Amino acid sequence: MGSAKNKSSAARKARIEEMRRAERARERRNRILTIAASVVVVAGLVVGGVVLIQSQSDDSDTAASDSKSTGKFVTGADGVKTWQGKLTQNHVTTDVKYPMEPPVGGDHNQVWMNCNGDVYAKEIPRVNAVHSLEHGAVWVTYTSKADKADVDALAEKVKKTPYTLMSPDEEQKDPIMLSAWGHQRTVTGADDPNVDKFFETYVQGKQTPEPGAACTGGLSQ
Question: Residue 182's domain spans which residues?
Answer without folding.
Answer: 67-202
